[in-house]
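*** Protein under study ***
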Amino acid sequence: MEECTYCRLIGNKSSHNIITENNHAICFAESFFREGHCSVVLKRHVSSISELTSDEYIQLFSLVKTISSALEIKYNADKTYLLSIGDQVDHFHMHLIPKHKEKCSMGIYCFGALFEAEGKRSPTEEEQELLKNDLKKIMS
């Protein structure tokens, strides 16, 4: 089996685009989607946020917060978009993309494309109540 992209990058400590890291996460400068785009990647290879230990979660989001603050200062951004999809790279990571003031909202792309492909749902109050109760039951 071929090693995943992020495992390879994490193993290459001389990578030119490493911004910072802690015990459980590492941040790479990417800029693929918009200027300032960064990825914060869990060092351990897992596929889903539900697989993170509490310590991994805390350290991952500590790095996300630090990088988000720096991006907002650098680009005078209103906020930082945070996305985690993982369909193309099956290694848990978060995309951080600053919301540049002169660029359009990314929400229209993310949700607009989804609505176009699947239609916009209008859940009933009963559906929402069932979801709420099912999740509460699972969590208890």
Q: What stands out?
A: Strands lie at 18-21, 25-29, 38-42, 80-83, 93-98. The domain at 5-103 is CATH 3.30.428.10 (HIT family, subunit A). The first strand starts at residue 18 and ends at 21.
